[in-house]
Input
Amino acid sequence: MISRRRQTPWIQRWSRQLIGAIALLGAINTAYLTFTKLRGIETACPTSGCEQVLSGPYATVLNQPLSLFGLLAYITIAVLALAPLALKSDGTGKTRSPVDQWAWLALFAGTTAMTIFSGYLMYIMVTKYIVLYGAKAVCVYCIVSALFATTLFVLTLIGRTWEDLGQLGFIGLAVGMVTIIGTLGVYAHIDRPVDADAGDSGTQQYSITSTSGPAELALAQHLKEIDAKMYSAFWCPHCHDQKQLFGKEAFKLIQYIECAPEGKNPQVELCQKSGLKGYPTWEINGKLLEGGAKPLKELATVSGYSGPSEFKNKM
Output
C-alpha cells in the first residue's frame, strides 16, 4: 500500500480538495457580485471597469445577474469535487465507487463549459470595453473568475489518470459546441436592441413608461437651460431608472449623451474625455455627479433649481 501511495502523484491525491477550495473561492467572488447587483450597491473596485462591465448588457441573463449563474456553477463544482471524498477510499485518494467516475466526468464537462464561457466574456471585455475606454475598463472580478474557471479545468485534467481519452475528447467537443452555441444565442439580441419607442433606427433597449408631472417638466427645462448633460448607455438599467423618474415627456428635454458605440448617435470620444466611471453620470455646472440614478430632489439641489418640487415620480 505504501508503494502504491508513492506512485500516485500528489496532485492526484489532493486534486479534489484543491478543486473544491478554488470553487468555493469562486463562489465567494460571484456571491459578492450577486449581492451588490441585487441590492443596487456599487461594487468596490480599484478601477471603474467593474461597475461599467457589471452593469453592461452582458452582465444580465434572463433578467438575472450573470454572477448568480456563476455562483450556482461554482457551488456545483465544489459539490462534485468534495462530496465523493465521503466515500470509502483505497488509500491513494481514489474512491472505489463508480460515483467517483461519473463525478470526474461531470467535473470535466462543467469546467470545460465554464472555461469556454469565461473566455468569451474576456473577449467581450477586451473588444467592447478596454479597446474603447482603456485600462480603466478592466473588471478585476471578471478576470479573477476567469482565472478560477481555467484553473479548475486544468486541475480536472491533471487531477486523475484518464483511461479513455477518446471519451474525454468527445465530451469536451460536445460540451464546447453546446456552450458556444448557447452563449451566442443568449447574447444575440445585444447587437440589435430595438425599442418600440425609438423608431425604425432606434437602439434604446428600455421603454420609458412613466409620465411627467409639472415639477418633472420644470426641472428638465431648468437642466436644459444650464446645459446639464446625462451620460448614459442604452442598455444601462440604472439609466433607465433615471429616465423613469423624469417621465417620457420631461426626458425629451434632457441633453442625453449616448456612450455605447452600438447606441443611437453615440458620442464615444466625448464620453472617454469626460473620464466617466459608470452610468448614468450627470455633468452639472462643470462637475460630474456619479453613483447611479439620482432622486430628482438631489438633481434639483445640485443644479440650483428653485421651481416646483412636488415630483410625481420617486425612487
